[in-house]
Amino acid sequence: MHSKKYLVLVGALMLLALALSACTAVAPAAAPAAAPAAETEAAAAEASAEKPTVALVYGVKGDGFYVTMEAGARAKAEEMGVDFFADGPAQFQPTLQMPILDAVIAQQPDAICIAATDKAALIEPMRKAYDAGIHMISVDTFIGETAGDYTGEDLSWMLSYVGSDNTQGGETACQAIVESMGGKGKFYIQTTQPGVSTVEQRVEGCKKAIEAAGGAVELIGMDYNDDNSSKAAEQTAAVLAANPDLGGIFGTNLFSARGAAQAVANAGLTGAVKVAAFDAPEDAIVALKDNVVDIVIAQHPYEMGQKCIEFSMAAIAGDTASIDKRWPTGYTIITRDNVDSEEAQQSIYKAE
Ligand code: T6T
């Protein structure tokens, strides 16, 4: 499929070159040159009508993280002359994301950037896209059991994994909370679902930070909220009620942290329970300023979207050698000390 489009493009360029040389080298024979020029125009028009197309399949609709990623991808696509479209499920669920991926494959884009909602369930559907001749790139989440390393044989058909270093992010978040708890006390984690690569790694990183406290910090529990902040708030409220001496909470993503922060504020425990929020929607920044949240880990979803378009275009042009199999996007760590800085303000996610 790619080759057909690009043969047309190459053909058009060759015809254009021929027409130009006909105009300059054989200037007196102007009349016969008119026919090839007309043909060239038609071929060029056909080629430009066949601009490459890249699709983004994100994790869930209306999540500021993916809204920002889509904005980055769209801006880069416009800059590079790429047709772009994006879609994703109403809930962060593989069963809802798979039919969307199938519908995207049916539209035959040249490349797909995808945030897989489950690291196992999406492998076969994504492989189907690759078998249909579509270049495949992971954004945000990865698939498989190799921690996002696509250099091995099994997943070598995946071009790249563009996303945060989530283990490191989780460790940074929890180190900060352990420190603000004075290195001791009870800790609780709010997370989304099993099988989601990003939040799994954040939990892993957080546990490292807790273990580094040498037993003085106790992880009393972890709940799954299904990416639902109301459920996260209810679960956290129950834990707070049962553990009035809780010291710290890690919310592993936007919805987990939102629910945890609401529960802490509702229980009148602002300041007494330290909260780390992964992701940076506007309300996390407000909670930080209000003392409800103590650290916000802002990912760089806009850059993820941009990078994915760049890598897609390199692949479409046949230049896979220039594509990094792993492209870690960084973080902006936001605290009350730097929240008003330009960098922190720029890293706040878009709401729409
Ligand atoms: O934290 C992000 C993303 O990195 C994760 O994979 C799923 O949740 C978010 O989209 C935030 O809601």
Write the layout of secondary structure elements.
Layout: H1 2-25, H2 30-49, E1 53-57, H3 64-80, E2 83-87, H4 94-106, E3 111-114, H5 123-131, E4 135-139, E5 160-164, H6 166-180, E6 185-191, H7 197-211, E7 217-224, H8 229-242, E8 246-251, H9 254-266, E9 274-278, H10 282-289, E10 295-299, H11 301-316, E11 326-329, E12 331-334, H12 342-346
Parallel strand pairs: 1-2, 1-3, 3-4, 4-5, 5-11, 6-7, 6-8, 8-9, 9-10
Antiparallel strand pairs: 10-12
Helix pairs in contact: 1-2, 3-11, 6-7, 8-9
The structure holds alpha-D-tagatopyranose.
Alpha-D-tagatopyranose binds next to α3 and α9.
What does this structure look like?
With 352 residues, the protein is an alpha/beta fold. The chain folds into 2 domains: 51-164 and 300-329, 3-Layer(aba) Sandwich (Rossmann fold), CATH 3.40.50.2300; 167-298, Rossmann fold (3-Layer(aba) Sandwich), CATH 3.40.50. The protein contains 12 helices and 12 strands. It has helices at 2-25, 30-49, 64-80, 94-106, 123-131, 166-180, 197-211, 229-242, 254-266, 282-289, 301-316, 342-346; strands spanning 53-57, 83-87, 111-114, 135-139, 160-164, 185-191, 217-224, 246-251, 274-278, 295-299, 326-329, 331-334. The strands form 2 sheets. It has a 6-stranded parallel β-sheet with strand order 2-1-3-4-5-11, with helices on both faces. β9, α10 (282-289) and β10 (295-299) form a beta-alpha-beta unit. α3 runs parallel beside α11 (301-316) and α8 (229-242) packs across α9 (254-266). It is elongated and about 60 Å long. The two termini are 34 Å apart. Mean pLDDT is 90; it is low at 1-36. The site of alpha-D-tagatopyranose (T6T) has 14 residues, from α3 and α9. The site of alpha-D-tagatopyranose has 14 residues, from α3 and α9.
